[in-house]
């Protein structure tokens, strides 16, 4: 059995969608869920959904909530009884195997680093996001936890990304690409130039620099970048995805022939949406902390929360923390 501490108060649609996602996740008989947050609010959602507290679902009280717009460092310091801090302490104390939250990303990252601590040898934790490609799936990191990075941080991201790719994506010899403005070794700023030389010396399959237009081509299995670039990259992608579907919806409304075409295109569009939609990914693990901490999208619905819990389960079963510790110590 795996126990997941779930932040019931984190996210744009909390606690409603979080509670619904928890109930969906309980379809897996190997999962226990600790719903962390304000008991009255959680219980209300359970009752609205016609549910009562189940054997494998327990409410863990937390009186405070860290809002999306709060300063992460200040909020974590001042709100010790927030659902984020309480949930992570459950992992630290061994009462839960993993923590999942769709709340304030910066607060989850800060609290995870403070409460769980970093794996020995890790300089900076990194958010790892799974993306689709022409040849399957890839992992990109960092997607937002470190806006300013040194070259040594990027080199460690490469090692952690390789470990994740092997264990979670099942790729035996992941190809690593350093996101840059050109493929030539002499391209980039001072940090990427130095990082190129450091990564090149690691015992991994480094293919060199990769331009953003090739990310989804399947040329690399691990994409390395700093959190500033990574966060803009992922959010731009989400914007393009939304624009594409909104444009199609509008076009299909404009003519009868378009509506007929939609009938034939619908199955393919559904497959496309399933492959690229954040709901299907669920959550991104914060690699490098001494415990499993999963960060879900702020607009996560019940399906996305269910998948985030599945991501946590996968990380636990594959002992990702122990494996990364080994890779960092013996690169």
Describe what is shown at a glance.
With 331 residues, this protein is α/β, with parallel strands linked by helices. 47% of the residues lie in helices and 18% in strands. The strands form 2 sheets. It has a 7-stranded mixed beta sheet, with helices on both faces. Strands 6-7-10-8-9 form a 5-stranded mixed beta sheet, with helices on one face.
Description:
This protein is an alpha/beta fold and 331 residues long. It folds into 3 domains: 2-122 and 288-329, Isopropylmalate Dehydrogenase (3-Layer(aba) Sandwich), CATH 3.40.718.10; 127-232, Isocitrate/Isopropylmalate dehydrogenase-like (Rossmann fold, 3-Layer(aba) Sandwich), CATH 3.40.50; 236-275, no CATH class. Helix content is 47%, strand content 18%. The protein has 12 helices and 12 strands. Strands 3-2-1-4-12-11-5 form a 7-stranded mixed β-sheet, sandwiched between helices. A 5-stranded mixed β-sheet has the order 6-7-10-8-9, with helices on one face. Helix 3 (72-78) crosses helix 5 (105-116). The two termini are 32 Å apart. The mean pLDDT is 89.
CATH topology descriptor of the largest domain: Isopropylmalate Dehydrogenase
Radius of gyration: 20 Å
> Span between N and C termini?
32 Å
| Bulk shape | globular
Largest sheet: 7 strands, mixed
């Amino acid at each position: 059995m795996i126990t997941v501490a779930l932040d019931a108060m984190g996210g744009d649609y909390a606690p409603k969608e979080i509670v619904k996602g928890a109930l969906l996740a309980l379809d897996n008989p190997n999962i226990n869920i600790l719903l962390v947050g304000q008991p009255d609010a959680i219980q209300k959602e359970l009752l609205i959904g016609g549910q009562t507290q189940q054997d494998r679902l327990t409410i863990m009280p937390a009186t405070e909530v860290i809002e999306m717009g709060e300063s992460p460092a200040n909020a974590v310091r001042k709100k010790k009884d927030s659902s984020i801090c309480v949930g992570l302490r459950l992992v630290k104390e061994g009462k839960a195997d993993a923590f999942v939250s769709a709340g304030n990303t910066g607060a989850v990252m800060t609290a995870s680093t403070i409460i769980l601590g970093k794996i020995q040898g890790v300089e900076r934790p990194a958010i790892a996001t799974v993306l689709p490609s022409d040849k399957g799936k890839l992992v990109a990191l960092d997607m937002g936890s470190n806006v300013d990075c040194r070259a040594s941080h990027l080199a460690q991201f490469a090692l952690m990304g390789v470990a994740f790719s092997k264990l979670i994506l099942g790729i035996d010899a992941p190809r690593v690409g350093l996101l840059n403005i050109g493929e030539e070794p002499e391209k980039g700023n001072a940090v990427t130039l130095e990082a190129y030389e450091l990564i090149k010396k690691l015992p991994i399959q480094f293919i060199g620099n990769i331009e953003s237009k090739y990310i989804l081509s399947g040329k690399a299995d691990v994409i390395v970048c700093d959190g500033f670039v990574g966060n803009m990259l992922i959010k731009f992608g989400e914007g393009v995805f939304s624009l594409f579907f909104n444009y199609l919806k509008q076009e299909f409304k404009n003519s009868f022939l378009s509506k007929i075409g939609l009938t034939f295109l619908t199955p393919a569009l559904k497959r496309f949406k399933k492959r690229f939609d954040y709901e299907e990914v669920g959550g991104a693990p914060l690699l490098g902390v001494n415990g499993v901490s999963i960060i879900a999208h702020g607009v996560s619905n019940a399906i996305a929360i269910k998948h985030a819990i599945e991501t946590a389960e996968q990380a636990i079963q594959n002992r990702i923390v122990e494996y990364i510790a080994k890779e960092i110590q013996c690169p």
